[in-house]
Amino acid sequence: MTTSTNDWLKARARQGAPEWSVVIADAQTAGRGRHGHAWESAPGNLHLSVLVRPQGDAATWGRLPLLAGLAVAEAIAGLGVEPALKWPNDVQVADRKVAGVLVESTSAGGALESAVIGVGINVASVPAGLDAEARTHAACLAEMMTAPDLPEIAAAVLARMRVWYHRLAADGSGDMIAAWRARALPWWGRHVEAKAGDDVLRGRAIDVDENGALVLLRDDGTTFLVHAGEVRELRPYGAPSFHP
What confidence score (pLDDT) does residue 30 get? Predict the structure, then answer.
């Protein structure tokens, strides 16, 4: 048990831990998700963090959150369940969240020095500490199949992460973004609301760009790029859509 696998590994990164150092905890006492949200970390679920030390263009590595979400989705798909990705990196099955990703990076001299990729997957249970609304939109793999062995799914996540990491390092961003789109929720062309800090933006979600930003088409015909934030659909599924 630890407070947070990300915090534990970030401390080791500052001490010189090598790339692909991994920590897995059976539970966390202070796990968190994106934007400071608490991540309930029940025993029997997967709580994993991995350290990478990207080289080259920092803009390339701004795609890490999408890469990590894609790797988790592919690992879950390998178990026989069909997941979908909600921008930027939530993993859902049947419109309910089963996994999330938190990427925290450290820069030095304007260059990306390291990044810790945290992954939380509800394997055995939906954490009991969630509020009623969050529980309604959460699921666990054990509800859909015999719960996989934690080392097995951790190995699958890391394997897919390495594949896409090395592909991205070799300038394979187009392949990665295309693979992410193929697993995205079918909401292209639909109205969404994006909360980025104190800003609330509304428009139609029409694509993700080559850097992984969500492209919104606003009512005045202009487009806006959302690089980070929380997004929700404003219209029920079933409306006409198109694909980028």
Answer: 54
